[in-house]
Structure formats: C-alpha cells, structure tokens
Specification:
This protein is α+β, with helices and mostly antiparallel strands and about 140 residues long. It has a single domain, classed as Nuclear Transport Factor 2, Chain: A. Strands 1, 2, 3, 4, 5, 6 and 7 form a 7-stranded mixed sheet that branches. The N and C termini lie far apart (about 50 Å).
C-alpha cells in the first residue's frame, strides 16, 4: 500500500470533519450548520429509520420539526471508510444513536450512513446520503 500524498491526507481530514460536523449540527440543534454539510440539491433518505426521503431543503425542515420532540439525543459517527477519486468520493460510516424522551433514554439505534461526496468551491459536501439502520433497541414512547 502506497503512502498517501499530502493532498490525500488533507481531503481525508476535510471529509472526516464534514462527517463529524453533521453529528454536531444535529445534536446541537444548529440545523443551519447543515448547509455546510450537504449540497443544496442533495438527496437524503432516512426511511430505514422510519423517516422520510427527499431533497435537502425538505429534509432540513423535517429534521428541525421532528428532532425537538426528543429531550436529548446523540449521534456518534465513526469507523469511516472513505474512497476518493479526484473531486468525488464515497464514504460509509457507522453510527450509534441513543434517543431520549422526557429526559430518559427511550431507544437506541445503530447503522451506517452511505454517502456520495463532492468537492465544491466551499469544500467537501455530501451530495447524497442513505441511512441504513441495522438495529434498534427499545421503542419510541
């Protein structure tokens, strides 16, 4: 395996920061920060978790409406597999997500985010995300 170039390392660092920024935007309820995560025309699919699929503006509005129903939650994103080909790439990252209602943990879920990435003038962005929920424990109350 060849050693990565400085540019490859920089791209990987920026993509890692992008995937982490998504989790912070959601968990901090700073939904406008998602504008720096997704392309304006991104396609997002949360249906495996009981959510919706659609274009980024619709998904952003839905997230800002549905997530405040929970008293707390955390999105831990790790185990990233990133492939870069010039100005495009893909990533698969594992997530672990406890969700609380009324101040107590109600359920946990885990799975993977499958992303199509593009380099834009403003840096790397997610152009397509498909959430694949693999497991759930507990049920929403």
């Amino acid at each position: 395996m060849a050693r990565p170039t400085l540019e490859e390392l920089q791209d990987r660092f920026e993509i890692d920061e992008l995937l982490t920024r998504y989790a912070y935007a959601i968990d901090d309820r700073e939904f406008d920060l998602l504008d720096t995560v997704f392309t304006p025309d991104a396609k997002i699919d949360y249906t495996s978790a009981g959510g919706i699929a659609g274009a980024y503006p619709e998904i952003k509005a839905w997230l800002s409406e549905i997530l405040p129903m929970f008293s707390g939650y955390q999105h831990v994103v790790g185990n990233r597999r990133v492939t870069i080909d010039g100005d495009t790439g893909t990533s698969v990252s594992a997530f672990f997500n406890p969700m609380a209602m009324n101040g107590a943990i109600s359920f946990f879920c885990g799975g993977e985010y499958h992303d199509r990435l593009v380099r834009t003038a403003d840096g790397w962005r997610i152009a397509e995300r498909v959430e694949r929920t693999i497991w759930n424990w507990g049920v929403p109350t």
